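Need the bound structure for flavin mononucleotide, inputs here:
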Amino acid sequence: MGADESRGVAATEYRTLMSGFPTGVAVITALDRAGNPHGMTCTSFSSVTVTPPVLLASLNLGRGTLRSILETVVFAVNLLHSRGRDAAVIFSSFPGDRFARVRWRPTSRLGLPHLTGAAFALAECVLADCFASGDHLVIFGQVVSVTQSPDTPLLYGLRQFSVWQFTEPTEAARANGDGRAVCEWDGT
Ligand SMILES: Cc1cc2nc3c(=O)[nH]c(=O)nc-3n(C[C@H](O)[C@H](O)[C@H](O)COP(=O)(O)O)c2cc1C
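Answer from helper R.:
Posting the output first, comments after.
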């Protein structure tokens, strides 16, 4: 590998690449050792395996929420619905008490912050593993409980928030039956 390849592309080029890969929007919440809630908006969130049910997120090492997760080894993933945009902004940039600005309650199982006004799904996780890469730590969580109700997910891509739009199936999808069903994948 030459010197240029080992350095990689410029940050702006890489950010533009990733902005073309829209995702859902999560707020990861945790409690510190003293029981204070912490939370941060997160889009670097992905499923790893179904059996066991493990997910991952890549968190900047400077984050208070990450510090709390490492202290108490549990965290919650709140998946935001289409009306959860204010919460996404609060949990990415508000410098004061973020939880004073949203509706939330502790979960009955692990006592983790559930953003009841902004999330349509919540997964409680036990920290199963972590892996450092540059200035981020990739955390792996084993999902121990899920609470969810059907809703429209909030999205983030092209450097802006958006809302999932259901579209008409294409001709090819129609020929195969239901345009949505033919794209289903069970994650295995
Ligand atoms: C749409 C969006 C997605 C984000 N995704 C991540 C992420 O995946 N990992 C990360 O470390 N920060 C991410 N951030 C930045 C954090 O939300 C932000 O730095 C937050 O203030 C961290 O809070 P804390 O330091 O209190 O934990 C994201 C911000 C936005 C607006």
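Comments: The pocket of flavin mononucleotide is lined by residues 25, 38, 40-44, 58-60, 63-65, 91-92, 156 (CB under 6 Å). The longest helix spans residues 11-19.
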